[in-house]
Amino acid sequence: MEYSVLIAGFGGQGVLLIGDLLAYCGMKEGREVTWMPSYGVEMRGGAVSCTVVLSRERIGAPVVGAADAVIAMSEPALHKFGERLLPRGLLLINSSFIPGVEKMVWREDLEVIPVPAGELAGQSGAERMANLIMLGVFLGHTGLLEPDRVAALVPSFLAPEKQRLVPEINKALACGCTFAASLARA
Length: 186
What we know:
Strand content: 25-35%
Radius of gyration: 15 Å
Largest sheet: 6 strands, mixed
Number of helices: 7
Oligomer: single chain
Order of helices and strands: EHEEEHEHEHHHH
Strand order of the largest sheet: 2-3-1-4-5-6
Low-confidence stretches: none
CATH topology: Pyruvate-ferredoxin Oxidoreductase, domain 3
CATH superfamily: Pyruvate-ferredoxin oxidoreductase, PFOR, domain III
CATH architecture: 3-Layer(aba) Sandwich
Number of domains: 1
Distance between the termini: 29 Å
C-alpha cells in the first residue's frame, strides 16, 4: 500500500524537517520512500513544502498529484494543497496559525483535524516544536508508523550538534500522539 503526504507552510516552521524525519523513519522501517522538498528563494518566511511517499512496494515516481494526507502549517498552504487531497483524505491544519479553520474547509469528503499546535507546544514545554506536534498527531491518528519507534529513531536522525534537542522533540511527538488519542476517544 502506498501512502502520500504533502506537508506545507512557511520557511522556518520546520516543514522540511518533519518530512525528512517521516521519510527517514519509513526507510528505517524497511519501507520504500521518496521525499521531495520544494522551497522558494527566501531563507525564512517564504513558501515551503515537501512530499513524502511511503510504500511496501517500489514507488513509480516521487511526484504526487493527489495525496492521501495534507499537513497545512499556514493558510496559503491550506489553500494551495488542500485541493490536492484524495476523496476521504486527511487534512491536518495548524489552527494556531490558521484562525477560523471551520469556515475555510470547502470539501465535505475530507477528514479535517484542526490542531492547536502552537498552544500544545507551549503546554508541553516544547515551545518551538509545533511542527513535531503536527507530526505526532499525524502518526497517532494514522498509525502509518509506530510513534514509539519514530521517537527511538530521532537520535540517529539528528546531527551530533543537535542531540540536545532529542528530549524536546520526543516530548512534542508524544504530545501530538496524546492529542490524536483524545480525538479518537471523543
